[in-house]
Amino acid sequence: MRHCGDGEEDGATPLRVxxxxxxxxxxxxxxxxxRWFAGVAAKRDELxxxxxxxxxxxxxxxxxxxxxxxxxxxxxxVDRAEAFVVVTPEYNRSFPxxxxxxxxxxxxxxxxxxxxxxxxxxxxxxxxxxxxxxTVFIELHTVTLRNGVSINLFxxxxxxxxxxxxxEERRDREASVLLDQLGWWGxxxxxxxxxxxxxx
Length: 200
Description:
Blueprint: E1 15-21, H1 30-42, E2 47-53, H2 69-80, E3 83-89, H3 97-103, E4 114-121, H4 127-139, E5 143-144, E6 149-152, H5 165-195
Parallel strand pairs: 1-2, 1-3, 3-4, 4-5, 4-6
């Protein structure tokens, strides 16, 4: 089977991928899902993976006149990354306010980079949240990936990652395809940025 990343140079500088955990709720499942995905991604030598957990940032309740240190710290993480995987739940057919707040702190730092999604929710697997997020990231001049990982919580037991063999195989396959595509787009856009300035 041919993968999208076939033909890449083995000696290339690893692609810097930020896995952003978008929920900050007490009792959230996003941390376990995000760290599971980051672990899968970290097995690939061509990727340099970091976890950016929004719960670790003390963002202000209101948008201040000047950026606070947590705001600039988050923006620096976005600037450093060359590709993103956003881990989002679905709340009321959309994504959480905590994620929108953080995304809006950066602008130029997102541009010309690929964004993929790992979503979770009951029934829809978080796909309504992903569709809402796509419009946000298109406005920020990113490239959103077609393929993602969708986790239907109805398929899970008490442990969101404890599923039957068929579901686990499907989830792992989705993660593999996502990472193949993220690597292709990430390296391609890295080369494009180096070759010519982006005009927006």
